[in-house]
Amino acid sequence: MRVIAGKLRGRPLKAPRGLDTRPTSDRAREAIFQILGNLDGLRVVDCYAGTGAMGIEALSRGALHAVFIEPDRAALHTIKDNLDKLGQKAHATVLEVPVEKARSRLEKLAPFDLVLSDPPWRIAQLGAVAVARLFAGLLAKDARVLLGHPAAQPVTLSEDSGLELADRRKWGGSGMSFFEIPNKNE
């Protein structure tokens, strides 16, 4: 596993041992970030961060700051180690807390421009709903929220989430749904 593009391109990323963490594949990350385009100056959150690969990729591509949310200690150690080895600690905040309990800490860092969430697939739908609730009122007006899921089981959000589906993509068995705040002027 490596950083795909940007100032950290080609640098290796460490992953925790075992099967508890399922990092987003290099291929999927490359495609996702090509779709996202310019990230210069954005404030990003990597929910269910695992290795931190998604947030680190955003930093490599110009994001101003990334918040990593991860409750698993082994994964947390890996994220911190990756950030340290890549010289990105000054541009990151690491929260050792379940996503559902991160609101009070995130309020101090908001607003956010991009939320990246690729939870364990067994909780993909629950994770999507938790992320939508968590970031209500914490997003910038043009924010995007990406929710990972098994390709065969796309996530859905209710209308009251304040987000609408803009795109949905698949890479092998992995899927990503791209949500955004609806433009009220249309």
List its salient traits:
single chain; 186 residues; alpha/beta; Rossmann fold; seven-stranded mixed β-sheet; 5 helices; 26% helix; globular
Structural class: alpha/beta
Mean pLDDT: 92
Low-confidence segments? none
The CATH class turns out to be Alpha Beta
Overall 3D geometry? globular
Q: N-to-C SSE series?
A: HEHEHEHEHEEE
User: Would you report the number of β strands?
Assistant: 7
**Lateral arrangement of strands in the main beta sheet:** 3-2-1-4-5-7-6
What fold name stands as the CATH topology?
Answer: Rossmann fold
- Helix content estimate: 25-40%
Descriptive overview:
It is a single chain. The protein has 186 residues and is α/β, with parallel strands linked by helices. It has one domain: Rossmann fold, CATH 3.40.50.150. It is 26% helix and 25% strand. The protein contains five helices and seven strands. The chain has a seven-stranded mixed beta sheet with strand order 3-2-1-4-5-7-6, sandwiched between helices. A hairpin with a 2-residue loop joins strand 6 and strand 7 (174-180). The model has no long low-confidence stretch (mean pLDDT 92).
Topology:
Layout: H1 26-36, E1 43-47, H2 53-60, E2 65-69, H3 73-85, E3 92-95, H4 103-107, E4 112-117, H5 124-134, E5 139-150, E6 164-171, E7 174-180
Parallel strand pairs: 1-2, 1-4, 2-3, 4-5
Antiparallel strand pairs: 5-7, 6-7
Question: What is this structure, in a nutshell?
Answer:
The protein is of the alpha/beta class. It is 26% helix and 25% strand.
